Amino acid sequence: MRWSFALITIACLCALAGCHSPYVVATVSNHTSQRIELVEVDYPSASFGVQALAPGSDFHYRFKVLGSGDMKLLYTDDAHQSHTVNGPFLKEGAEGPLGIIITPAGVSWLPGSGLATGK
Length: 119
What we know:
Layout: H1 2-17, E1 24-30, E2 36-43, E3 46-53, E4 58-63, E5 69-76, E6 82-90, E7 96-103, E8 106-111
Parallel strand pairs: 1-7
Antiparallel strand pairs: 1-4, 2-3, 2-5, 5-6, 7-8
């Protein structure tokens, strides 16, 4: 009886070790000389954000894409101007790194090579 339980437990642990859940690792970077306020990133089915992002700093966030749709970045600059920038289309189950870089000239979206984007 003990051996049966041990074998079942080992089999379950081995099966779980082989499981993989796809996720996106996003990094929002402030490459300006000013503080950015109220940073929000919308993605299919949810959003994440940070209250403020200091000059030269990064904010890291990991998320799972449920559903498909466009991304969007919303933030407020040091002059209290609100900005909305459309991003890439993500498919459900997308996986890989995503860089979102805010510069004085605008916003760059840098999806990694493994990130499934496009409609």
